[in-house]
Description:
Elements: H1 3-74, H2 80-100, H3 105-121, H4 126-131, H5 141-212, E1 217-218, E2 225-227, E3 230-232, H6 234-242, H7 252-265
Antiparallel strand pairs: 1-2, 2-3
Amino acid sequence: xxxxxxxxxxxxxxxxxxxxxxxxxxxxxxxxTGGQFNNSFNFVMQTYKVLDLFEQTQAxxxxxxxxxxxxLLTGRQEYIEPYERAMQAIREDLANLNKLTANDPVQQANLxxxxxxxxxxxxxxxxxxxxxGLISTNVSxxxxxxxxxxxxxxxxxxxxxxxxxxxxxxxxxQQQAAEDMVASQLMSLILIVAVALTLAMVxxxxxxxxxxxxxxxxxxxxxxxHYQGRWLRLDEYLKRQFGIxxxxxxxxxxxxxxxxxxxxxxxxxxxxPDHSRQP
Length: 279
C-alpha cells in the first residue's frame, strides 16, 4: 500500500471516528450539565418550599399565641383545641424545616433559636394554668396583650432573619441554574457544529473515494484518458478531475533511450554525406 493510499485510509477512518467521539462527548456533556441543572432546579424548589414553610409556621405561631392569650384572658375551653392544633403544626413545620436545611448551618442556628422561643413563650399547660389561678381578669388584658405582642415580635425577628437568608440562597440557586442552562446550551451548540463539520468531512472523503474508484479509459496507443467525451492528456485529466497539478520530468529509461538514439545518429555510417567537399 502506497503512502497516499495509507493517508486516505487514515483520513477515512478518522472522519468516521470523529462523529462518534463527538456524539459520545455530547451524550456525556448533556448528562453532566443535565445533572447540574437538575440539582440547581431541585435546590430552587427546595428553597421555595423552605420559604413557604417559614411563612406557614409564622402564621401558625400567630394563631397559637392568639388562642393562648384568649384562654388566659377568659379561661374558656374553646381556645384549647385550636391552640393545641396550631402548636402541633408548628412542631411538625419546625421538624420539616430542620430536615430541609440540614446542610445549612446558618438556618440550623436560626431554627434552634426559633424552637427555643416557641418553648419559652408559646408552650404552656392549660390544666396547670387553671389549677394555679393564672387566668387573668380584665385588669390584666393590656398586660397580656403587650406581652403577646412582645412574643410575636421576638419570633418575627428570628423568622425575618431566616426568611431573608433563605431568599438570598434562592437568588444564588436561581443564578446557578441559569448559568448551568446557558453552559449546557453553549456546549451542545459547539458539539453540534463539531459533528456537522466532521460529517461534512466524511462526505467529502467518501465523494473523493468514489471518484478514485471510477473506471478510467486510457488509450493503449497514446496514453490519453477519455473524459467527458474528449481525449485528454493524463496531466490535464488529473487537473480537471482531481485538481492535481502535474510537473514534467524525464525518467531514467527515457533518458537512456534518448542517449542511445543520439549516439546512434552520430555513428559514421548513419551520418548524411557531406556534399560540400565534392570537387
